[in-house]
Amino acid sequence: MRQCVGYWIAFAILAVASCAGSLAAADDVPRSGGPYVPTPQAVVDEMLNMARVGPDDFVIDLGSGDGRIVLTAASRYRARGMGVDIDGELVDLSNAEARRQGVDKLVRFQQQDVLQTRISDATVITLYLLPELMHSLRDRIYSQLKPGARVVSHDFSFIEWLPDRTVTLDVTEKYALPGPWQSTVYLWVVPAKVDGRWHATVSGSGNESLMLSFTQKFQQLEGAAVHGGERIALQDGQLEGNRIRFRLRDPAAGGNALREFQGTVNGDTISGKIVSQGGAASWTARRIRTSVQQ
Ligand SMILES: C[S@@+](CC[C@H](N)C(=O)[O-])C[C@H]1O[C@@H](n2cnc3c(N)ncnc32)[C@H](O)[C@@H]1O
Fold it and tell me: What DSSP string runs through 203-224?
C-alpha cells in the first residue's frame, strides 16, 4: 500500500516538473482522497473488464480526475455514467471530452465531495482514492448499493471487506517511476444481506424443516442450522451478489457427509438446490422478522 502512495508522490512531482499529466488539475483544491493521478488506460480496461460493464450499467467514478474511466465505459460499452471530482477544472475538462467523444447523452461530470454523492443508483462504482477516504466510503457502498453491484478499485483496498477477486498487471506507464511497475485491481460484488434467522424447507425426501441462523461479515457467512433439535454448524458459507452457498453435515447420511446448499436471495426469501451424495433436492427459506425489524 505504501509503495502505491510512493507512485502517487513520484507522479505528482514529475507532473509538476514537466507540466504533463495533470494539465487541468488545480493545485489549491482540498482533496481528502489524494491528488490527481490518472489510472493508466490498460488498468482502466481491466477495471471495466473485471466489473463486466455493459450497456445496462450505471457507472460512478468517485474522484473522476480527467473522466477516463466513465468515458471509456460509455464509448466502449455504451454504459451510462457519472464522474464526481472536487476539482472543478477537471470536471469541466471531462464534460468537454464527453461532448467531443459524442457520449454526453450517456455521461455527466459534476463537482462535488465524494462523501456527499448519492451512490445508490450505481451498478458499478470505480475508485482510485487514498485508503482513509476508501474507509469512509466503505459502509455506505456496502449498505446502499443493490446486491450484485460491483466495486472496482485501483491499488487500494477496503479494510476488512475482503475483495472477491484481485488481479495484478504490469503497467508500462510506471516504468519511469520508483515503486512497483505494477497495478493491482480489486473487485467486490455487493452481497445480499441475510444476517438473522430463516425458516427453511427442504423438498425431495419428505418435507424437512430447518431453522437457519446466519451471521454475515460482508460476503462471508457463518452460522448454524437446527435440525430435529441438533445444532449443525455451517461450513464454507459465502455470498456473491444474490447468490448464497454453504455446506451442512447431512444427518440422514451419517458420518461426515455434506450437503451443499446453493440458492438465490430475493429479499426475504431464498430458493435453490441442494447437492449431496444422496442426489439433488430443492430448498426454500423465508426470513423470520423480529418485531423490531418489522
Ligand atoms: C488518483 S485520482 C483518480 C482519477 C480517476 N479516478 C482515475 O482513476 O484516473 C483521484 C481524484 O480524486 C479527486 N478527489 C480527491 N479527494 C476528493 C474528494 N473528497 N471528493 C471528490 N474528489 C476527490 C482528486 O481531485 C483526483 O482527481
Answer: ESSS-EEEEEEEEEETTEEEEE
Taking only the tens place, the pLDDT of each residue in 257-288 is 899 999 999 999 999 999 998 788 999 999 99
Cα of 195 from ligand 1 centre, angstroms = 34
**Cβ of 81 less than 6 Å from ligand 1:** no
Please provide the size of the chain in residues.
294
Task: Looking at the structure, tell me whether residues 20 and 40 fall in a common domain.
Answer: yes
185 lines ligand 1 (CB under 6 A): no
> Which one of 189, 207, 226 terminates a domain?
189
68 touches ligand 1 (CB under 6 Å): yes
Is residue 147 domain-shared with residue 76, that is, in the same domain? yes
Residue nearest to atom 27 of ligand 1 (CA): 65
β strands within 13-87, DSSP E? 58-62, 80-85
For helices 41-50 and 68-77, angle between their N-to-C axes, nearest 10 degrees: 60
Residue 51 domain flag: yes
- 10-34 confidence digits (pLDDT tens): 666 555 444 334 444 666 767 777 8
Nearest atom (ligand 1) to Cα of 90: 27
Conformation bin of residue 98: beta by default, left when phi > 0, alpha when psi is -120 to 50: alpha
- How far apart CA 224 and CA 159 sit, in angstroms, is 26
